[in-house]
Amino acid sequence: ERSSNNFNYGAYHSLEAIYQEMDSIAGDFPHLASRVKIGHSFEDRPMYVLKFSTGKGSQRPAIWLNAGIHSREWISQATAMWTARKIVSDYGKDPAITSILKKMDIFLLPVANPDGYVHTHTENRLWRKTRSLHPGSPCIGVDPNRNWNASFAGRGASGNPCSEVYHGPHANSEVEVKSVVDFIQKHGNFKCFIDLHSYSQLLMYPYAYTAKEAPDADELDEVARRAAKALASLSGTQYRVGSTATTVYQASGSSVDWAYDNGIKYAFTFELRDTGHYGFLLPADQIIPTAEETWLGLKTIMEHVRDHLY
Amino acid sequence: RGKFFGDQVFRINVRNGDEISKLNELVKSDNLKLNIWKSSCSLGHPVDVLVPAVSLQPVEFFLKSQGLDYSVTIEDLQALLDKEDEEMQYNQEQ
To answer: Do A98 and A14 touch, CB atoms closer than 8 A?
Structure first.
């Protein structure tokens, strides 16, 4: 276990504890990591990313690692936190991450839906959406992964505020989504966007909103298969690989499709453990094994991006 | 925090288009308060649904009467949630 002070990476944590540990990582590794506020949530909680950078300048080629956009998928936020510690621990020791960070910055957003995450700890463990209000409807929240401007309000999303896949009144209506979109567009030099979800053990690439093949599908499929193979090498966890629309279902308004359509070629979605035995309630003793294997997949993708900058 | 006493998660295997439409009919009935955990539009890939305790009987009746193949993947959701809570409490004490 990688514990610093009293943060147990093999356990689930409150939003406050996660934010504190992000601060602690930035404090422990000031020349590599910094905690950056990129916006706030509907209920006015800060949204923090950890920026890992070894170079000067604000527009280095960059990788975005997104987690926790669906709040009940706890292994996603937990894996992101383990990954943050792994990056700072291994920089200067592991050749791969050291060379990646020599060339690129990495931005890690462990909790993309802070209000939803707090709600899973306080009211409803199985909450998925944001917590925004809809005048005229008793129902709360938008599915933040149907709210991006990628065939917004198309198939696989609902216009009903009470639906779990409600796309929202308009694209980027959720301040949590708009904060990320604005940050990435302002930066302008992101080459990779990876969104961590659970569960089903899938590694997918665009498109979700159409069954049509993405222009880079062959390359993305090859990279994804190599990543899934690396992931499986640790403890045999099997992943299925393919485009989202053909692997699970068509879904409009997703983060990864938005990234791809906005020039970020290396765009992937992970659905982490498991295949349904525990579903969203993956026991805490599987956090570190899940994070360790996921890291091997992430590293494979990031190395490919490092070697194929465009 | 809200409780899920008696709630279960069903895994429903749909084998053809007809079964998909039957499942959609089931999922759309508001009064059952079903919550889709994992959906899938491709045949051969199961759909996971959280079934509240009060809807167990009608849902099972529907699935059996329509010949839909299903299994219970989580029999006692609240027990898993309680265990998760205990682990978090323990960790915080640590």
So the answer is: no
